[in-house]
Design a protein that fits this description.
The protein has about 325 residues and is α/β, with parallel strands linked by helices. About 30% of the residues lie in helices and about 30% in strands. It folds into two domains: about 220 residues, Rossmann fold (3-Layer(aba) Sandwich), CATH 3.40.50; about 60 residues, Alpha-Beta Plaits. It has ten helices and 13 strands. A six-stranded mixed beta sheet has the order 5-6-7-3-8-9, with helices on both faces. Strand 11 and strand 12 form a beta hairpin. Helix 3 packs across helix 4 and helix 3 packs parallel to helix 5. The protein binds adenosine-5'-triphosphate (ATP) and magnesium ion. Adenosine-5'-triphosphate (ATP) binds next to strand 2 and helix 2.
Length: about 325
């Protein structure tokens, strides 16, 4: 597991150690520990009010933890880290009267880029985000999604070592969501580490290498996507002549369809800890004839529901 252990923390680009954040009597984040290793895409997942934004703000020194320790890029969070971190805040906000290209160049310059390099990178990003014909528009005249893309460009302009993106997909149409997914994948390929928050599991499914799942300020899961899926019982669809409910590793078998020739299709759930391979072996040993054997991998959506509960999920 990535969270604890000195070695991991030493190599981490972002780490939380027993971090608690209280607002008055209310505890928004409870003793949260995790570590993000350098490279790759890390998903910060949880329902509304889970503590994602609060945690990201603490990593950026916008908020201070009540207890615990945070390290970003090997240091305690401070404004000095700003040049190496690209941040997309939850509350979007740019200067409404500034033109699109000037805005992105301005952020590049703030982060220490030379004017020529900032302009080149800004133009490339605006082209990529389909805003090449809007470079001279004031930001205030753009649609919400377009303004969001400009803000994303300000986060990406200097190819920072760490990208912290709070709900980067919200407000984007499907075409722009795909463009952003590609931009995130490319950033990670080009040596940035990307941490993004979402409660839309499909993005996490496609993008994340590892994920942290928060519910009401507490960590409920931390690990790889495969580890997350393995936390749920395996499910299979079988076509057999006998009812698989009699097999020891099966916890539930539901008849879906009976064929005229004696074969029937079942949906089967295995007991926790049982593997599909075990079931196949038992079937072979017991002469339990199978005509089909399909494993259904749990989706992250199901993992989310399993850990966080259906009432927490909001799909935008
Ligand atoms: N400044 C504040 N004062 C008081 N409570 C706060 C403050 N900021 C956040 N909270 C509370 O902390 C909890 C976590 O909020 P946070 O914004 O971190 O959630 P989130 O996971 O980002 O949710 P969402 O998906 O809705 O953006 C919420 O209950 C929220 O009301
Ligand atoms: Mg939030």
């Amino acid at each position: 597991m990535p969270a604890e252990g000195g070695d991991n923390l030493n190599r981490a680009i972002l780490s939380f150690e027993s971090v608690t954040k209280r607002f008055g009597d209310f505890t928004a984040v409870h003793e949260l520990s995790f570590a993000v290793q350098e490279g790759g895409v890390f998903g910060f997942l949880g329902g509304n009010g889970a503590g994602k934004t609060t945690s990201l703000r603490m990593a950026l020194d916008i908020l201070r933890p009540s207890e615990g320790r945070i390290e970003v890029l090997g240091r305690i969070p401070s404004r000095e880290n700003a040049a190496e971190i690209g941040f997309l805040p939850e509350e979007r906000g740019l200067y409404r009267n500034m033109k699109v290209l000037d805005t992105v160049v301005y952020f590049g310059r703030l982060k220490g880029m030379e004017p020529g390099a900032a302009r080149k990178s800004a133009l490339e990003l605006l082209e990529r985000f389909g805003l090449a014909d809007r470079t001279k528009s004031p930001v205030g005249k753009l649609s919400k999604g377009m303004a969001q893309k400009v803000q994303l460009a300000t986060a990406l302009v200097n190819s920072p070592r760490l990208l912290l993106l709070d709900e980067p997909f919200s407000g984007l149409d499907p075409v722009n969501q795909t463009i952003l997914e590609d931009a995130i994948t490319d950033a990670a390929r080009n040596a940035s580490t990307v941490v993004f928050s979402t409660h839309v599991m499909q993005h996490a499914e496609r993008l994340c290498d590892r994920l942290l799942l928060l519910a009401q300020g507490r960590k409920v899961f931390d690990g790889t996507k495969d580890e997350a899926r393995a936390a749920l019982p395996s499910r299979l669809t079988l076509t057999s002549r006998l009812d698989p409910a009699s097999l020891p590793s099966v916890s539930e078998a539901r008849l879906v369809w009976s064929h005229d020739d004696g074969w029937a299709e079942y949906q089967v759930e295995l007991r926790p800890g049982s593997e599909p391979g075990e079931l196949l072996e038992t079937c072979t040993q017991q002469g339990f004839a199978l005509r089909s054997f399909d494993i259904t991998r749990p989706t992250l959506h199901e993992v989310f529901i399993h850990f966080v509960g259906a009432e927490q999920e909001i799909v935008r």
